[in-house]
Every structure is written in C-alpha cells, then in structure tokens.
Design a protein that fits this description.
Elements lengths: L3 E8 L3 E10 L2 E11 L3 E3 L2 E3 L2 H19 L5 E8 L4 E5 L7 E3 L10 H11 L2 H8 L8 H6 L9 E4 H10 L4 E2 H4 L14 H6 L10 E2 L4 E4 L5 H4 L5 E3 L5 H7 L8 E6 L2 E8 L6 H5 L3 E4 L5 E8 L2 H14 L5 H9 L22 H11 L8 H27 L5 E5 L6 H11 L3 E3 L4 H14 L6 H11 L3 E3 L4
Parallel strand pairs: 1-6, 10-11, 14-18, 18-19
Antiparallel strand pairs: 1-2, 2-3, 4-5, 7-8, 7-9, 12-13, 14-15, 15-17, 16-17, 19-20
Helix pairs in contact: 9-16, 12-14, 14-15
The structure holds 6-deoxy-beta-L-fructofuranose.
Pfam families: FGGY_C (PF02782), FGGY_N (PF00370)
Protein name: Rhamnulokinase
Family: Belongs to the FGGY kinase family.
Length: 479
C-alpha cells in the first residue's frame, strides 16, 4: 500500500523536534530529523521564550525533512504543535506583513498573579468555569492578557503554533484545541466567547478565526522556497495543543482507558464526548480542553518530569558535572522505603524554575516529614510523589466522570521511566501500559495523514495503527 511522508514540528518546554513520519494503512514509522533545546530566557521584564530561535530551528529542520523525503516522493505536508496558552502579539495593518510585538512570555513568568486577581474581580472563577470549563491555571491566556503591558498596541494575537504557522505561510488562524486553553472559548459551542471578551476589555478583533484540526492553513511563503528547498509546502492544522496531539497518539485500548501524558507536565484524565462542568469538577480543578474531532480532554495538570529535570539542572549547576538520569533512576530503585518521603507535587512553589531539592527539603520540613538527603533518595522521593499525584488524579477523574477506569496509558517521555510507570501502577491499582514515547509527534502526523486521505477513520481506528506498529510495555500493579 502507498506510504506518504509527513513532517511534524513538535515544540516542548525543554526541547523541540522535527520528525519525519512515513505513513500508510499499515505503516507508521518515525525518524527524528532535528532536535534543539528550548527553555526559559530570563530578561529584565521576566521569563520569555526564544521564539525567533525556535522558528529558525524549525525551518532548518524542515529543510532537512524536505531533503530526506525527496527520494520518497517529497513531503506531503507539515503540522505544528507546542505547549498551550502562550502567544505572540502582532502589529500591522496588512495581514500578510505583521510584525511581532515584544518577546512572547513564558507561562512560568510570575506576572500572571496580577492578572488572576484583576480577572476574578470582573468575572468570578465559578462563572468563568461555567463558560470555559477550564481548570484554574494561573497562566491561562486570559490571565496573561490581564497582565500584558503591550496589549493596547497589538492588532492580533496568535498562539505559539499559530504564530509559527503564520511566519511560514502568511496566513492567520487559531487552531481549535489550543484555542480551548485560552479561557476565552465557550466550552459548549467551541466558538470564541465574545461576551466574555467584552467583559474583560478584550477586543474580539484581536483573535483570528477558530479552525478545527484538518484545516489547511496555507502553503509556505515564496520567500522561504530557497531555504526549504521546496515550493508551496502545505501546512495542515493538527491538534496544535501538544496534549491534544498526544491523546490522538495514545493507543487507548478500552473505552474505559485513562491516560497520563507525561512530559514536563503529567496530564492525567479521560477522553470524553461531553464536558463535565460541575461544582465537584471545578473544586477538583479538572479541565475540559478541546480534543481532536470535537472530543473533550477531561484532565488535570499534575506536576511532571519538570521536577526531575529542574533537580538535575540544580545539581549540574552546583557540581559542574553532567547528571546521568538513567544511573540516578537505577540507584533510586534501590532506596529502601523508609528513606522515601512522599510530598505534595502540586505545591505552587514548584512552578517557577529554581532549586527544587531545596524546595522539596523545605516542604518536607514544614510537614514534619523526613528530608531526603542523597541524590538517589531525592530522585526516588520525586518519582514516588509524582506517582502518588497521578494515582490521586486518576481516582478523581473516574469519580467525577462517573466512569470505571480499567487501564492507564502512559505516553511521552515519562513512559520510558520504568520506576515511575511501576510506581503509578502500584499506587493507582491499575495496570499501566507505557508508550509510545513520541505520542505527540505521532498524533500530529496521523491527523495530517488522515486529512490527506492516506489513512481514514475515527480516532479509535487511527489509534489501532499505533498499537499495531509500536511496542508497548505493561506494568501490573503489585501488592
Ligand atoms: C504541556 C502543556 C499542557 C499545558 C502546559 C502549558 O506541554 O501544553 O497541556 O497546560 O503545557
């Protein structure tokens, strides 16, 4: 059967990558074409992203993807996804030639606390939740906008993947799954809530029209032809919120499967057909984000590998020595139970970058728990605490949605962490099926392939291709 080649640009908080996907009715092969670091950029006015650098890396990666796809009939299209909520502001009267205003902020920047207060004075959280169905995250776009100094100058706002799409094509749209993370989308109609915008003093003209995954944004600008080595490359909207693509790329094996998409965050929840917007779901801080094909991602943000990676970064800075995660995890597996402290990974002190071992020690002291001392003890305590956070969220998701969960799928970087997968199985009581690690890129590629007609079917049918082509590891709960 015919195999077609697609490229995914997938930007995570700690790295970005360009992946090539060869896809056919029985084929799903991924190769990494480019990988580049990403992270916080500390400027005098706060934490930012190096968005122009990311764009340049994506372009170079795409040029390489074009080269590699040449013998295989060329690249059929490109899809872009990234973390949610962040945006760039644009200025200009001609839609095809707008300039970026300022440097996009990183969602971990602390300015948003001002925005939360300001927003809730106008619209109390309970009402916001009824309208947008979103969990409270202090960095949801609407809170960022309430603290945004450059807003008065801006003509347009584009979320990160849409901004890169604009730079590639000159066309502006707001992809629907990521739009759902702004807080400005109506959870039921899935359209911009212009009434809410007016109440918050935001002009609806600031926002580009919402379009679902499967829409063709446009083709690459003529000015990029030489650099890319290709003309008129189509950019297809996919689930541009990375978590939306990750859930497409999760081979949910039963109707009662839960998932954990574990990268920087651990996104724990269920795929539903209808939102759950109740007082209980609001209090438990469960979100109803938009999924591909109009599905609902009913989930909550649990701390993810951020805690581990910031811990390793702290030790690297302190010792000047590169830390080896695999070795640390192997040592952590040997730590006896009585040396492990389970702490609350949801404590807000862990959100900003910084010295996590110090913060863990402070939290444990405050709660009169033993402070883990050695690196292996700290790593083991982090892993067990993450698993405890996941287990709690899984139980809540099932209860709030009135579902009986039978299995948990762990995808993303965390699925490679056997200690974490086993601890999650043990603490939740559910079997954990781990993999694929590249669920986000897979989800991105599969929606492009379905849009072009290389594959067909519902998400369930599309996911079968993943379980047929990828090796998954099952962790049974113990004791
Ligand atoms: C994960 C993610 C998550 C959002 C956060 C901002 O990368 O997109 O779904 O809550 O970043």
């Amino acid at each position: 059967a015919a195999v077609t080649t697609y490229a995914a640009v997938d930007l995570g908080a700690s790295s970005g990558r360009v992946m090539l996907g060869r896809i056919g009715p029985d084929t799903l092969e991924l190769t990494e074409v480019a990988r580049f670091p990403n992270g916080t950029v500390n400027l005098p006015d706060g934490l930012h992203w190096d968005i122009v650098g990311l764009y340049q890396h994506a372009l170079n990666g795409l040029a390489e993807a074009v080269r590699q796809a040449r013998e295989e009939g060329g690249l059929a299209s490109v899809g872009i996804d990234s973390w949610a909520v962040d945006y760039g502001l644009l200025k200009g009267s001609s839609p095809g030639r707008m300039a970026l205003l300022g440097t996009p902020y990183h969602y971990r920047d602390q300015r948003t606390s001002r925005g939360v207060e300001h927003t809730h004075q106008r619209v109390p959280f309970a009402e916001l939740y009824r309208r947008n169905g979103l969990q409270h995250l202090p960095f949801n776009t609407l809170y960022q906008l309430a603290a945004e100094d450059l807003l008065w100058m801006a003509d347009k706002l584009l979320l990160i993947p849409d901004l890169l799409g604009y730079w590639l094509t000159g066309q502006q749209l707001t992809e629907a799954t990521n739009a759902s993370t702004t807080g400005l989308l109506d959870v039921r109609t899935k359209a911009w809530d212009t009434e809410l915008m007016h109440t918050l003093g935001l002009s609806p003209d600031l926002f580009a029209p919402v379009a679902p995954p499967g829409t063709t944004l446009g083709t690459t600008r003529g000015e990029l032809t030489e650099l890319l080595g290709a003309e008129d490359l189509p950019i297809t909207l996919v689930g541009s919120h990375d978590t939306a693509s990750a859930i497409v790329g999760t081979p949910l094996s039963t109707p009662n499967s839960a998932y954990i998409s574990c990268g920087t965050w651990g996104l724990v929840g269920l795929e539903l057909d209808e939102p759950v917007v109740t007082d209980d779901s609001r209090r438990a801080n469960f979100t109803n984000e938009g999924g591909v094909d109009g599905r609902i991602r009913f989930l909550t943000n649990v701390m993810g590998t951020w805690l581990l990676s910031e811990t390793l970064r702290t030790w690297e800075r302190r010792t000047g020595q590169e830390q080896n995660l695999a070795q640390l995890l192997a040592a952590a597996a040997e730590v006896p139970k009585e040396r492990v402290s389970v702490f609350d990974v949801q404590d807000p002190r862990f959100v900003p970058p910084g010295d996590m071992p110090q913060r863990i020690a402070e939290l444990c002291q405050e709660q009169q728990k033993p402070v883990p001392q050695q690196p292996a003890e700290i790593v083991r305590s982090i892993v067990e605490s993450l698993a405890a956070g996941f287990a709690e969220a899984l139980a809540q998701a099932a209860q709030l949605a009135g579902r009986s969960v039978d299995v948990v799928h762990m995808v993303g970087g965390g699925s490679l962490n056997a200690l974490l997968c086993q601890a999650t199985a043990d603490r939740s009581g559910y079997p954990v099926i781990a993999g694929p690690v590249e669920a986000t890129a897979i989800g991105n590629l599969l929606i492009q392939a379905r849009t072009a007609g290389t594959i067909t079917g519902t998400l369930e049918e599309v996911r079968e291709l993943i379980s047929r082509t990828h090796h998954l590891t099952t962790y049974q709960p113990r004791g």
